[in-house]
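Sample pair:
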Amino acid sequence: MLKVGVIGCGGMGRDHIKRLVERTQGATVTAVADMVDELLDKGAAIAGSGCKKFKNADDLINCPDVDAVFIVTPGFAHKDALLSAIRAGKRIFCEKPLCTTAENCLAVIDAEVKSGKHLIQLGFMRRYDKGYLQIKEALKSGEYGAPLIVHCTHRNPLVPDSYTTEMAVHDTAIHEIDVIHWLVDDDFVSAQVLFPRVTGAAAAHLKDPQIMLLRTKNGICVDDEVFVNCKFGYDINCEVVCEDGALKMAQPSYPDVRKGAKGATTIDTDCFVRFHDAYDAEVQGWVN
């Protein structure tokens, strides 16, 4: 049984604690850490009796009852916890992003390489989503020819005031950056960000929406619309245009309701619902 310590008991952290306790085989949560007492107590309550509580990440990492570490803190706080866990030789699941600056990312990568072990898995759940997996298999078959263009949208109903313009890249579009690289098996060579007219729903400091234009070594062009205050729901789309066909990601199965001369289809409200199964598969794969 893998004894997991979870650092960060916010919304995402508590969701992972619940997943590890209730839906993951071969793992148990033996310790949680958070600087905020209320969040720490909530996380420990989900983990159950016997779970140790820490205010300091290093204390959790070095606890003998912790075999592996889950890092679910904000991205800017990842570096120190990652380096500490690497020094301790603990296996690590770290929610994206690795870090929020290139300098810190390289410092973590360098530390892992010097350790001589592959210790870190990053939390990119879309690689485990049925829709993306279907596109991946279709591309691998060769039936549709080479990919030429990829269209993506990443829309959230709203974000907190603490969300910054830069976070649209390292906290939101990072999902597309990862999954498109994986889908087409190609590296990016250029990137451009366009700022359309700002929505009235955005905080004064935030430029939202944004359009990101990426190009790969093989000339594939990617456009990614990031709109984090769209109001209407959590709306994720991906279409790969190939030489001999187009592959559009299937959406979750909700009924198309028609009543009173009107029609409507349900849209998810957050990532926890939309990617519920993908999160489960990702964490189970890490434990395995």
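The longest strand covers residues 147-155.
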